[in-house]
Amino acid sequence: MQQVKGWPRATPFALGGAAASASRPLVMAIVNITPNSFSDGGRFFETSSAIEHAMRLREDGADIIDLGGESTRPGAEPVPVDEELDRVMPVLAALVREGVCVSIDTLKPEVMRAAVAAGAAIVNDVNAFRAPGAIEAVADSAAGLCLMHMQGTPATMQKAPHYDDVVAEVSAFLRERAAALEAAGIARSRIVLDPGFGFGKTLEHNRTLFQALPRLAALGYPLLVGVSRKRMLGELTGRAVDDRVAASVAAALLAAQNGASVLRVHDVRETVDALKVWMNLRPGTGASRQGARRAQGKGR
Ligand code: 7PJ
Predict the structure, then answer these.
(1) Can 201 be counted among the known catalytic residues?
(2) C-alpha–C-alpha distance, residues 123 and 8, integer Å
(3) pLDDT of 54 higher than 60
(4) How far apart are CA 212 and CA 168, in angstroms?
């Protein structure tokens, strides 16, 4: 089991590890391992292309690779546990051998157990460990745990999402789930919360939650935000899913500014560049501080 440098963190920008590493939110890269219907290469092709893709994303600056073998997009069909294991485990094992920090995106306790035993550093559960046996599957490990809010199930969640007070309800859910994990002996420091953008939410719900990120961060756990290429960005820009890079980078940057500690993204290179610019130009950084001192007659 490897520990993720800087995961989880009590405060958004107190990144652990070497002082040289500029403190910034962690970038979690999305790698989906789903069958390629245009390929007759079978599992070997899927496995090797997923490994290659993940290694490229790490070179692009990803801190974490989030592996998923079952789509949780609205309307997606569930995948049997053996099939999900066949998809993710060879890729996970290869990445762990390469020293990559791997997160497993799953809601199945069997997959959690196998992944953690094979060296996954994080378990990312869009179901917030509500499946029977999920908490037990991770309790005795040291893995970081991402608890996400979802209303309904992937099959039905976008049919008619309803909240009386979306921020209050999502907060209460996340607090209750964190408490359930802590009651099972899981250290608070392992837990990260995620409001679950697009999971049983209209554009208005997503907007309200996004604007409430500072309030959610005040719950006292680091926040993970995943908005990359999602429908809400399509609704805001009118762009198709593969044309939402700029929208995704803008949203990731805003999430970082609003207190997100981990950003789950497809476009790692672009997001890392945007974060570098922000880290170096935002108020209180670098030369501007000197400038302020000079203006006050304190500097040279
Ligand atoms: C999320 C996720 C998210 C976390 C997916 C997609 C849908 N895990 N898995 N947060 N989204 N923690 O990427 O469009 O927002 S799958």
Answers:
(1) no
(2) 12
(3) yes
(4) 10
| Whether residue 264 lies in the annotated active site | yes
End-to-end CA distance of the chain: 50
Q: What percent of the chain has pLDDT over 70?
A: 85
DSSP E strands in the chain: the ranges are 26-32, 64-68, 102-105, 122-125, 144-148, 191-194, 223-225, 260-265
Q: What is the DSSP string of 9-66?
A: -SSTT---S-TTS----EEEEEEE----TT--SHHHHHHHHHHHHHHHHHHTT-SEEE
Number of CB atoms found within 10 A of residue 59's CB: 10
Contact 28, 224 (CB under 8 A): yes
Q: Which of 29, 32, 64 is nearest to 47 (CA)?
A: 32
Active-site entry in 9, 87, 264, 269: 264
Of residues 87, 108, 229, 230, which has the active-site annotation? 230
Sign, CA torsion 103/101/57/212: positive
pLDDT in tens, 80-114: 999 999 999 999 999 999 999 999 999 999 999 99
φ, ψ for residue 122, nearest 5 deg: -140, 140
What is the helix (H) or strand (E) element at residue 88, kind and residue range?
helix 81-97
Interatomic CA distance for residues 157 and 161, integer angstroms: 7
What gap in Å lies between CA 98 and CA 236, rounded to an integer? 39
What is residue 243's DSSP assignment? G
Probe residue for ligand 1, chosen from 26, 103, 124 as the CB with the greatest number of ligand atoms within 8 Å: 124
Kindly state the DSSP code that residue 270 receives in the 8-state scheme.
H
Is 229:270 a contact under the CB 8 Å cutoff? Answer: no
- Given a contact cutoff of 8 angstroms between Cβ atoms, the answer to whether 37 and 75 are in contact is no
